[in-house]
Amino acid sequence: MKAFALAHPNIALVKYWGKRDFAYNLPGAGSLSLTLGGLSTRTCVEFDAALDADSLQLDGKAVESGGKLKRVSQFLDLVRERAGISQHARVISENDFPTGAGLASSASGFAALALAATTAAGLELSATELSILARRGSGSAARSLFGGYVEMNDGVYAIGEDGTKVATRSAEEASKAAYARQIAPAAHWDLRCVIAVTSAGEKDIGSTEGMVSTQNTSPYYEQWIASVPGDIERAAAAVAARDFAALAEVAEASCLRMHASAMGADPGIIYWNATTVALIHAVRKARAGGLPVFFTIDAGPQVKVFCPAEALDECRALLAGTQGVRQILEAHPGEGARLCGDF
Ligand code: DP6
């Protein structure tokens, strides 16, 4: 009743921002991402009849109460229900990168948790079923089950329907559910992601809360959602053709439109700080000068800059030379979630 799993975070090139259903955590539109090797979450889950509650240890510290423990416990309820067990679990999770600072730790966290918890509970789920399950924990986690370049479907099924067994559906039916799939393996295109950390603290407004506020109050939300399918098509074509300039254009547009929809909320949500803005300008200026780079930003002030492998040193120097950058992390196309040994 014990298992270990490892998953990498992923960064969306076409963003997920908004939900069509909250209870089942169904996204308002699809998204497209790259799974990031070089940054990892390792999670151990042990179901134990002697426990009278679930326990969570995150990066060496016991999480006694609050939102994080509740979210993990509710996720474990889904696994218990599916496996027909009632034992509580001991969950230990370690990130080798800063948690909660806009580096998508919920993506790698729930992907690793889904794999470790289902394995510990004796379930054998397909990658698609795991992706659907991980989505219930966090939408972006559905993508981290897979390596390389990944597309997430928005799905068309009404509430609950896409929780049924995907394996028993026709391919056409199955493609209507909300889960992710690999569109190109990690080895397809050696893009690098250089992450400029511009603030060390946990973000003020988490992505779930930011999405809820955006869709409830921003007059730009509908237009944002309507813009996503075209962006996914363009991004998927750019990935298939390894067309850096085309991917740069669509990824920056998707990022800025997502943030514009959030800034249009009431009150407006601004995830950026002065260094975030300085980096946006620095990246655009460098690109105009011939350096192949583009940026993307999630629900926080960190800036992720993509470049081809051969431009890595110049890209790194560009970020290191921007005032206010506190730390630089590097990632490369990574593999999907997998079982691992003790850590
Ligand atoms: C800005 O997956 O964290 O990183 O489903 O509510 O857990 P929940 O949201 P989450 O949102 C990620 C938002 C984003 C964009 C993206 O990764 O697509």
Characterization of this structure:
With 343 residues, this protein is α+β, with helices and mostly antiparallel strands. The longest helix has 20 residues. The two termini are 17 Å apart. α1 packs parallel to α2 and α2 crosses α3. The radius of gyration is 19 Å and the shape is globular. The strands form 3 sheets. Strands 2, 5, 10, 11, 12, 13, 14 and 15 form an 8-stranded antiparallel β-sheet that branches. A 6-stranded mixed β-sheet has the order 8-7-9-6-1-16. Strands 3-4 form a two-stranded antiparallel ribbon. 37% of the residues lie in helices and 23% in strands. About 2% of the residues have low confidence. The chain is built from 10 helices and 16 strands. It binds ligand DP6. Ligand DP6 binds next to α6.
How does the overall form come out from the CA principal axes? globular
Residues in helix, %: 25-40%
Largest sheet: 8 strands, antiparallel
How many strand units?
16
The whole-angstrom Rg is: 19 Å
pLDDT < 50 runs, ≥5 residues:
159-166
Q: Strand content of the residues, in percent? A: 15-25%
Overall mean pLDDT score? 92
Helical run tally: 10
**Gap from first CA to last CA:** 17 Å
Bound molecules: ligand DP6
Question: Which descriptors apply to this entry?
Answer:
single chain, 343 residues, alpha+beta, eight-stranded antiparallel β-sheet, 37% helix, globular, binds ligand DP6
